[in-house]
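Kindly review this protein for my students:
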Amino acid sequence: MRAYDPGLPRIVWVLQLGVFVNFFGNGLVAPFLVLYLHFGRGLPIGVAAAAIATGGITAVTAGFVAGWAADRIGPKRVLVFGMTSNAIAYALYITVREPWQAFAVASLVGLGTGCYGPSSQSLLSALVPADRRHRVFAQNRLTSLIGLGTGGLVGGFIAAGGRPSDYEFLLTLDVITFVSFALVVTALRASPRGMGKAMTGRYIDALRDPALLRLGLVNVALVAAAIAPMLVLVPAYLKTHAQVPESAIGAIYALNTLTVLVAQLPMARLVEGRRRMPLLAAGAGLWVVSWSLLFTAGAAFTGTAAIAIAALAIVLYGLGESLYALIVTPTVASLAPDALRGRYLAVLGLTWQGGFMIGPAIGGQLVPLDAFALPAFGIAGVAFAGLMTLRLEGTLPLEHRGTPRAKKLAA
C-alpha cells in the first residue's frame, strides 16, 4: 500500500478535502444543468447549451487575470474569490426564468471557473517542495475524479424525479460546497514558500520562455487529438460505427476511471528520477495504440467483440492519461519562477481550452464520415505531439528535464 501514500504534508490533505467537496458539488450539477434549464425553466435545449458555453468564453479571460492576480496578491485570495463567485452564480441559477438571465449567470460561472485553475495549481505548488509537486498534482487529480464521480451518482439519485424542485435542491447543495471550499482555503495557514506574498512580473516574461511556448503547443495537440475527443466524441463514434449501446459505453468509461484510480499514485513514484519528455512521448504512444484499437472496433467489429476492444483501448488511454497528468502541469510549475507561476499556469490553461475548442470542432465533423476519419485525426495529432515532445527536451533547462525524487519530509 506504500505506493498509494503520496507522502504529503497535512495541510495538503486539508486542501484536498476541500477540493473533493468542490468537485462533489460540480458532479452534482454539471450533468443536469441543461436538463434543469430545459425541463425546469422551459428554455430550448439549444439555448440552454449555448448559455452554458458562454461560461467558457469568460473563463479564458478570467484565467489570464487570475494568473496575474495569483502572482500579485497570492493564490489563496484568488481561489477564495473564484469559489465565492461560483457560489453566487449557482445561487442565481435558481432564479433564472429567461434566456438572457441564463447567459448572464453562465458568464459569472466562467469568472469563478477561470479563477480556479491558475490559483489552485499555484497554491498546490506553494504548499510542497519542488520534488513533491508531481505527487501533489497526482493526488489532486484523484481527489477531483472521486468527487466528480460520487457527486454524479448522488445527483442522479436526487434528480431522478425530474421536478424543478429537485434541480433547485442540487443547485443549493452546490452552493454549499463552493462556500465550504472557500472556508477551507481561507483557514489554511500561509506556506513558508512565499504563498500570499505580492510578486512582480509580466505575462510577456512568461511568453518569452521558448520551453513554455513549445510545451503549450504540444499540449494543444494532445488535448485536441486525444483528451477532448476521447471525452466528447468517442461515445458517439462507438455507437455510430460499432453499434455499442449506451449502457456498454458507460461501463467502458467506468473502466477508464478505475484505471486512473489504480494507476495514478503508483505511477507518481515510478516517474521519479526519470526524464519527463520521453515519458510524455510514451503516454502519446499509448494514445496512438488506443486510437488504433478504436478504429479496429469501429471498422471491423460489432457487439461483444467491439465492446471488448474498445474497453482495452480506453484502459490504455487511461494509462497514458495518468502519465500526461504527471508530466505536463508539474513541468510548467517547475519551469516557472515563483513570481510568474500563476501566469505560466494560466498560459497552460489557455492551451487546454484551445485544445477543447479545436478537437471537438474538427472531430465532430469526422464522426459521421466513416470509421477511419476520427481515429486518423487522433493518431496524426498525437503522433505529431509525441515527436514534438522529444524535440522539446533539448530546450528544457537541465534541472527541469527529469522528475525529481521525493526527499523524506522533515518531521
